[in-house]
Amino acid sequence: MTTEDGFANSRGHASNAFVARELGRVEGHLRRLVPLLEHRVGQAPRILDFGCGTGGTSVALALSRLGPERVVGVDAAAPALEAAAVRAAGYGLSPPRVQFVHVAAGEPLSFRHGSFDLVIAVSVVEFITDARQRRDTVRMLRDAVRPGGHLFIATPRPGLRELHSGRFLGDLRRAPGQPWASPSGELAAWAEGWVRETLPMRERWFTRWQRLLVQKPAP
């Protein structure tokens, strides 16, 4: 039995669309996300992938021309991390070059401040459904970036229907436990005091996604 919405159901079965999307994650990121970061970030020896899920982004970053020596993926879902380790092994990647760490939801990262040249969170913050916790999480990600390093966040743009759940006005009616998109003013607050990179016009306006890339000022 499978679902038609592209997600696994409560019994662990997944639709064909979900499986296809999972299988194509690495190649999709290598086509779209990775070139964007390579062009604007340059070299990033140490990368943190926050909310890495099954590791598609982590693996793509490890294969990139960013020159990573270490990519760390963290996630609150232990089964997803098991799948991520299998995915990485399939690409010939193993610790310490790529490693996956379990961090419970709402728990702080165990890394020292300024440990990473690049910190990314792709389709993560919209699932942090408490406003204060969302702000605290972004502050934690900013702290993980070294001076001169970069933070990249990709999250949905508010619309008539919330992107993930399809709820009408779901980005305004923020039901407990339901994802919601961040307005542009919230992204501006996340970038406060940092240098905001200008992204291509198509990246900024013509998709349901919005992307924030900021550089931490050097001392």
Structural description of this entry:
The protein has 219 residues and is an alpha/beta fold. The chain has helices at 16-23, 25-31, 33-41, 56-62, 78-90, 131-144, 184-190, 201-205; strands at residues 46-50, 70-75, 98-102, 116-122, 145-156, 195-196, 209-215. The chain has a seven-stranded mixed beta sheet with strand order 3-2-1-4-5-7-6. β2, α5 and β3 form a beta-alpha-beta unit. α2 crosses α4. The termini are far apart. Mean pLDDT is 88; it is low at 1-11.
Helical amount: 25-40%
Question: How many β-strand runs?
Answer: 7
Structural class of the helices, strands and pairings?
alpha/beta
- Oligomerization state: single chain
Taking all Cα atoms into account, the compactness measure Rg is: 17 Å
The description of the largest β-sheet is: 7 strands, mixed
**Which regions contain 5 or more consecutive residues with pLDDT less than 50?**
1-11
**What coarse outline follows from CA principal-axis ratios?**
globular
Topology:
Blueprint: H1 16-23, H2 25-31, H3 33-41, E1 46-50, H4 56-62, E2 70-75, H5 78-90, E3 98-102, E4 116-122, H6 131-144, E5 145-156, H7 184-190, E6 195-196, H8 201-205, E7 209-215
Parallel strand pairs: 1-2, 1-4, 2-3, 4-5
Antiparallel strand pairs: 5-7, 6-7
Observed structural traits:
8 helices, alpha/beta, single chain, seven-stranded mixed beta sheet, 7 strands, disordered N terminus, 219 residues
